[in-house]
Amino acid sequence: MGDGAMKRFSSRKLLVLGVAVVLAAAGCSSGATPGASGGGGTADSVTIPFTPEPKSLNPDWQNDTGAWYPAGNIYSRLVDLDWGATAGIVAYPDLAKSWDTSPDGKTYTFHLREGVKWHDGKPLTSADVVYTYQTIQEKRYPLAQYLNGATITAPDPQTVVIAFAKPNVAFVPLLAQASNWYGAILPKHLYEGTDWTKNPANTQPVGTGPFKFVSWQRGGQVSLEANPDYFLGAPKVKKLNLVVVTNAQVAMAGFQSGQYPFVADNLLSNYQQIKQLESGGGDTTVVRTPSLYGRDVYFNLRNSILADLRVRQAISYGIDRDAINRTAFAGLWPPDYNAGISSFAEYLNKDAQFPHFDLAKAKQLLDESGHPAGPDGTRFTLRLTNYPSTDSTLIAQVLVEQFKAMGIAVKWQQFDLTTWLTKLGTGDFDLSTYYVRYGPDPAAYAEHFGTGGPRNFTKYSNQKVDALLAQAGSTTDVATRKQLYNEVQTQLVADVPYVNLFTENKFSLARKGWDGFAVQSSAFGKAMGWFSFYAVHRTS
What we know:
Layout: H1 11-19, H2 23-26, E1 45-50, H3 68-74, E2 79-80, E3 92-93, E4 96-101, E5 107-112, H4 126-139, E6 151-156, E7 159-163, H5 171-182, H6 188-191, E8 211-217, E9 221-226, E10 239-244, H7 248-256, E11 262-263, H8 271-280, E12 284-289, E13 294-299, H9 309-318, H10 321-329, H11 359-368, E14 380-385, H12 390-406, E15 408-413, H13 417-426, E16 431-434, H14 444-449, H15 463-472, H16 478-495, E17 498-503, E18 506-511, E19 514-515, E20 537-538
Parallel strand pairs: 1-10, 14-15, 14-16
Antiparallel strand pairs: 2-3, 4-5, 5-7, 6-7, 8-9, 9-10, 11-18, 12-18, 13-16, 13-17, 19-20
């Protein structure tokens, strides 16, 4: 949908959209599928659908969601994090076999594994890590926000030292998480002295990861093969074919026919069907994976209407999370009312809650703010955009109707990821669904709500919150950090720069007879990233 495009959906239309996924092929009443149990590949070869088409196979120089799956298997990172983070498994070794932290929390010394080789046979050294990170800093590529102010050196070929002027106690877990997207360590011998955006290695990548590049058929698939020299041992799957599938119905049909043993959450849109499959038995496993993210509504405080606290409070009263859950998610997404998420309970202030649904209170506050309803019931008009994911789109569809009930006309605008991020970054929006990140360390609050934070698209600024965040980010004492982040959450609920709606619920499908997908608990702490298939194997 192009810029300025607008759609309105009733709840009935939304339900029709959700049920449209090839139910005849699904056999969803019983969970049965046409393929044999354990279908979707052989012990040596597996085919996985993913979306969207990559722009490049170098993930570091732009925010390219299509590159995440191929790059997550071709390259290695300094440290890793997978979905085990919600189970207490935070950063763990990748190229760094271990690391030390100085007592003041300013300096991190990483010790690299010995004998690691690039896929072309060249040895990996600390020079590759330093080159990658320093170039990212210099060019202000996406990972630079986590390396801001860092001095990066290599005292010897197996050691990398990253030092900050101030304590940065959350550095390692946040680096590990962000490295899933755009923190691949690149070969200095292939990239030095070149333009990263045009380097031929972007389409013929050379990494140190568990799989080696074979071919890339544009619009078709990326083919990889097992790396027999991988430093943790060769993967059990010998051939990995990543097939570009942009349509959820096509992905589901392929899974049902036994073509794919796994479908990730971003290719599932029919929650009624997921609910039926979950209770239907058969050879399909519905995988529920806890997340570190919420689903929420961001307010652009530069908008004169939304700058009024009473308007933001009114909107928070007028959002019916239960109705969104029923209509969009078939009851599978329980509402959240806190300025945090249930899956990261260690730092959750359960007493700091956004209001529960009260439409009369919402209308009262809008009246008091000087926005009475006009003859047609409309008070004012706002633009709403959404993160381009299935769940955020479903949420936005229902929000359009709920805003209308408050007397707020909505122009719903949808964009691709790059355009959407640009719109948020330049302030060219009024409201947006978003995904506040609450872990793997609560220091992530500073990204979203600290003055000048890289994800503070609301332009929220509160000196008290800034002081709390700075103090919490410089102490390692858990009790003190909990107290400080509790105060942050209390202030966020009072100021309403955003409204949290849900903890993200990730649902994926896996064929029985396969195990080790990154979203499964059996792979926590050893998947080698969110998008890696290193741990995948046949069980029958």
